[in-house]
Design brief:
Shape: globular
Function: This protein may play a role in the biosynthesis of the prosthetic group of nitrogenase (FeMo cofactor).
Distance between the termini: 55 Å
Structural class: alpha/beta
Helix content: 40-55%
CATH architecture of the largest domain: 3-Layer(aba) Sandwich
Pathway: Cofactor biosynthesis; Fe-Mo cofactor biosynthesis
Keywords: Nitrogen fixation, Plasmid
Strand order of the largest sheet: 1-12-11-10-13-14
Low-confidence stretches: none
Strand content: 5-15%
CATH class of the largest domain: Alpha Beta
Number of strands: 14
GO biological process, one term: protein-containing complex assembly
Number of domains: 3
Mean pLDDT: 91
Radius of gyration: 24 Å
InterPro entries: ChlB/BchB/BchZ, Nase/OxRdtase_comp1, Nase_comp1_CS, Nase_Mo-Fe_CF
CATH superfamily of the largest domain: Nitrogenase molybdenum iron protein domain
């Protein structure tokens, strides 16, 4: 059983985690005609906006209530109301996702009451726009908790309650925050190949994939999950949640509508992919398509080709809990050893399943201290200096990745994604292998000759 070591430092050295509000904003960005609104200072929003723009290389419609020092003391309801009305007047979004920050959460305001009052007093002006509140203080949790909180809030606020007539071919997919644009697009293609209709919430593949309208500027998100589809989630026959942090929204959907859910901790690797494909086949009552069978055969061949390069390698990973589990199980399944594992929070139940002797809740300073002698460092772009000091290669995963292009179009799930991941990592190992020294090849080279 893994031994989880709590954070003991009073300050972060080279921080690993991104904040809850950022995760919630990312989830809201996966909804069509939406705008995330940070309820906090301009600095909080500016920092998140910089990370989003550098990672996605896109224009991000992120707004702020711009709380100043007076509102921080007396209360920020007036700023929240003004920001919402301005967004409605200027951009007419279908959804405004309010993400609270530490500045206003520390004061202990009743945001739900404030929003209810704003909606009541401004019902005429706000007609046609839904407002969803996600309580996401920076001082608690990290990006995956913020993502899950926003998805839960959208289901609770928007999805129609009660048992509804089910559509036999409709399924709901609740992807984890760590799935890329390519991952989500691939999920949709696989589901549709079984004749099923997927509704993905949130769907960043439609809003953050680089697509822009040809003839006009759109001040909200362009693409993503449609508002009407969120309302009608209860008409699906099955919900599939990916990642332990998506258990809560899946349970809420089941409680509100009766839609059953299946939870996948990871879709990377042969076992998880097989279970996912088998579930789709059972729901659709159709055989697995020939192209998917071929992709599975290709993965089997990649497993044979690649395991020579993974055997005995020591890996250091620093990531959010669910992504850490996804990567750690992948590497150990290929024969590598987890030499160091660092994550952002110790509350996730998935940490108990981690294939490592010990797990540190901490930052990139911690992983640098634990990764001496490792063959590969796996984390986001902020780990590049640590990798350089350690003298080992860096495999960039997660958020943010700002010093490489195309990170959102890398596939890492199901048969094709696992195959590509094997090749990417094996190529890193081959590119960084050291030529053997003569004494390592001949242990008797310097032996003393008898006289």
């Amino acid at each position: 059983m893994v031994h989880i070591l709590p954070q003991t430092k009073s300050a972060a050295v080279n921080p690993l985690k991104s904040s809850q509000p950022l995760g919630a904003a990312l989830a809201f960005l996966g909804v069509d005609r939406a705008i995330p609104l940070f309820h906090g200072s301009q600095g909080c929003t500016s920092f998140a906006l910089v990370l989003f723009v550098r990672h996605f290389k896109e224009a991000i419609p992120l707004q702020t209530t711009a709380i100043d020092e007076v509102a921080a003391i007396l209360g920020g309801m007036d700023h929240l109301e003004e920001a919402i009305l301005n967004l409605k007047t200027r951009t007419n979004p279908k959804l405004i996702g309010v993400c609270t920050t530490a500045l206003v959460e520390t004061r202990g305001e009743d945001f739900a009451r404030d929003l209810a009052k704003i909606k009541l007093l401004r019902a005429k002006e706000l007609k046609g726009t839904e407002i969803v509140l996600a309580n996401t203080p920076d001082f608690d949790g990290a990006i995956e908790e913020g993502w899950a909180t926003a998805v839960t809030a959208m289901i609770q606020r928007i999805t129609l309650r009660g048992e509804q007539a089910r559509q036999s071919k409709k399924i709901v997919i609740l992807p984890g925050w760590n799935l890329t644009v390519a991952d989500i697009e691939h999920l949709r293609e696989i589901v549709e190949s079984f004749g099923l209709k997927p509704v993905i919430l949130p769907d960043i593949s439609g809003s953050l994939d680089g697509t822009v309208p040809d003839d006009r500027w759109v001040p909200t998100t362009y693409g993503g999950t449609r508002f009407d589809d969120i309302q009608e989630l209860g008409t699906a026959v099955q919900c599939i949640a990916i990642g332990e942090h998506m258990r809560r929204p899946a349970e809420l959907l089941q409680t509100q509508t009766g839609v059953p859910y299946a939870l996948f901790h990871s879709l990377t690797g042969l076992k998880g992919a097989d279970r996912f494909v088998s579930l789709l086949s059972a729901i659709s009552r159709a055989p697995v398509p020939a192209n998917i069978r071929r992709h599975r055969a290709q993965l089997q061949d990649a497993l044979l080709d690649g395991h020579f390069h993974f055997g005995g390698k020591k890996i250091a990973i620093a990531a959010e809990p669910d992504q850490l589990y996804q990567l750690a199980t992948f590497f150990t399944g290929m024969g590598a050893e987890i030499a160091a594992a660092v994550t952002t929070t110790g509350t996730s139940k998935i940490l108990e399943e981690m294939p490592a002797e010990s797990l540190q809740v901490g930052d990139l300073g911690d992983v640098e201290g634990l990764a001496a002698g490792a063959d590969l460092l796996v984390t986001h772009s902020h780990g590049r200096q640590a990798a350089e000091r350690l003298g080992i290669p860096l495999m960039r995963v997660g958020f943010p990745i700002f010093d490489r292009l195309g990170s959102q179009h890398k596939l890492s799930i199901l048969y094709q994604g696992t195959r590509d991941l094997i090749f990417d990592v094996a190529n890193i190992f081959q590119a960084n292998q050291r030529a053997p020294r003569p004494e390592s090849l001949d242990p008797f080279r310097k032996r003393e000759m008898p006289r």
